[in-house]
Amino acid sequence: MWMEHNEIRELKKKIHTLIKDLDAAGFQNFKDQLWETAKALGKLLQNHFYKENNVLFPAAMSVVTEQEWVDIRQEFDEIGYCCFTPPELITIIPQTEMTPAQQTPEGVLQFETGSLTKEQLDGLLNALPTDITFVDADDAVRYFNKPEDRIFVRTKAVLGRKVHNCHPQKSLHIVSKIVEAFKNGEKNVAEFWITLNNRFMHIRFFAVRDPEGKYLGTMEVVQDLTDIKKLQGERRLLDWTA
User: Fold this and answer.
1) pLDDT tens-place string over residues 145-201
2) DSSP string covering 139-190, please?
3) Which of 41, 74, 218, 242 could form a disulfide bond with 11, CB atoms 3.0-4.6 angstroms apart?
4) Phi/psi zone of residue 82: left (φ > 0), alpha (ψ -120 to 50 degrees), beta?
5) Amino acid 139: pLDDT
6) Average pLDDT of the residues in 18-24
7) Could you tell me which of 163, 177, 168 has the C-alpha nearest to residue 219?
8) Which superfamily does CATH assign the domain made up of 2-89 to?
9) pLDDT of 99-130, one tens digit each?
10) CB atoms within 10 A of CB 205
């Protein structure tokens, strides 16, 4: 089914490309290719829908639990539906309490979209190809990650220090303006780019907020874009070699 999704996607892309290049291809060539592609797409969709209705969905009805259907429906509402969502399908799904078996094990951090151990989270943040620094709502530095190739040096001595004491005097007033704009809700992002040691650096500040919009702090993200800027064409997942 997943392979057919990919095939459907490629056929749809081909149709869009044909329409885009209509003038260059010539009308007769366009018409012939469009007819063949549309026929292939129609046949594939027909077979795909048959498998869904007669194999996939009946099998799901026999193995998916009632609670899992509730979870699936919530995921559907979040991701969205194909083309449109009939208004009668928009309903409020009742929240259910977690059973003891579903509760988070000790030592695991539970997030809305999953769970991680402290070790996993630490490794994940340090594996990111960016420098990350977090300043809390009181303007104190609370965290920085440790990627293998850190761009701006950080030591644990900065933890707890006010962010205003972590920047050069000449840029201090700009940092203060950014943080104040984040706190006031006027801005959510500020970005800059510089050349450092012949490398192109992208520096961004993001306002961190809770689901209600309350300001929790500011995250600074620094990334070396030098090699990314050189990329051309495509390298797909299937092109990867060990």
Assistant:
1) 999 988 988 888 889 988 877 777 777 888 889 999 999 999 999 999 999 989 999
2) SBEEEE---TT-SS---GGGTTSBGGGGS-HHHHHHHHHHHHHHHTTS-SEE
3) 41
4) beta
5) 94
6) 84
7) 163
8) nmb1532 protein domain like (1.20.120.520)
9) 554 567 788 999 988 999 999 999 999 999 99
10) 21
Joined together, the tokens standing for residue 179 give 């943080």
Residues of the chain with CATH 3.30.450.20: 114-230
The larger pLDDT score, comparing residue 76 to residue 117, is at 117
CA atoms within 13 A on the CB side of 60: 10
Provide the pLDDT for residue 92: 56
φ, ψ (nearest 5 deg) of residue 66: -60, -45
- Report the distance separating Cα 89 and Cα 94, nearest Å: 14
Task: DSSP for the chain, please give it.
Answer: -HHHHHHHHHHHHHHHHHHHTHHHH-HHHHHHHHHHHHHHHHHHHHHHHHHIIIIIHHHHHHHS-HHHHHHHHHHHHHH--SS---GGG--PPPP-PPPGGGSPPTTEEEETTEEEEHHHHHHHHHHSSSEEEEEETTSBEEEE---TT-SS---GGGTTSBGGGGS-HHHHHHHHHHHHHHHTTS-SEEEEEEEETTEEEEEEEEEEE-TT--EEEEEEEEEE-TTGGG--S---GGG---
Q: Of 11, 3, 13, whose CA–CA distance to 37 is shortest?
A: 11
